[in-house]
Amino acid sequence: MLKVEGSSIALKNVKKKLGNFSIINNVTFRLIPGVLVALLGPSGSGKSTLLRVIAGLEFADEGEIFYYGKDVTKLPTQMRGAGLLFQSSALFNNMTVFENVAFGLNTKIQKFSNDSRREEWIIKRVNCLLALTSLKTFSKKYPYEMSGGQRQRVAFARALAIDPKILLLDEPFSALDVRVRKRLRKWLKKMHQLIPTTIVFVTHDIHEAIEMADQVMVYEKGTLLHNGNRKQFLRYLRSREDLSMYPTTYGKAN
């Protein structure tokens, strides 16, 4: 029986179909708090749909989803409290970096009784996030003035603005060139050491999973085939006869 207590994310018998095709086939797992998890699968495996269901952007046909023991299965995204980051940084080009990170914070700070205290809190919170993500010198810049890697760091800071206990990342570096991707992988790994947040990131790159994740879940054709730590994942890879469906930025997996 799945133990929901003590987990950051738990899925129990989650199913979803697109027409007659089962894109999520009775998925069950639990994650401990603060873990960095790779959801690995080839293109078309349904891994992004699974992440969207975990996030509440889509709903499962059957099953249950829990955040820290709370049933969020029927809750919309904004009521689940997870931070989201996708392939596109989805920043507002007419807003500065500071304004992008601050966007949406007003829904988080209704506790303040007057506008001056609210504004003071926003400035303090955003400056803290910009310092954390090494973006303080970019606060007055606009997204179109920045590189792709810098824009993704802004998007990451914005995702952290609501102080989420869970971050869900859908191939956040895949649109970037290889050198920038490698640099941002190291950066995200370092960030994770500073924030007590459960992070799930979708990837189709085996070496990205090995390099970054504490835990790897292998997802193919709507089915969770493997869920284990890095050492267990490497053993799993050696047992596989065919990995040709997994492109990699570093060459053939060992």
Automatic annotation (TrEMBL):
PROSITE patterns the UniProt entry points to: ABC_TRANSPORTER_1, ABC_TRANSPORTER_2
SMART domains per UniProt: AAA
GO molecular function, one term: ATP hydrolysis activity
One Pfam family named in its UniProt record: ABC_tran
Gene3D superfamilies: P-loop containing nucleotide triphosphate hydrolases
Protein name: Probable transport protein
Taxonomic source organism: Pleurastrum terricola
InterPro entries: AAA+_ATPase, ABC_SmlMolc_Importer, ABC_transporter-like_ATP-bd, ABC_transporter-like_CS, P-loop_NTPase
Lineage, highest ranks first: Eukaryota, Viridiplantae, Chlorophyta, core chlorophytes, Chlorophyceae
Domain annotation ABC transporter: ranges: 9-246
Keyword hit for NAD: no
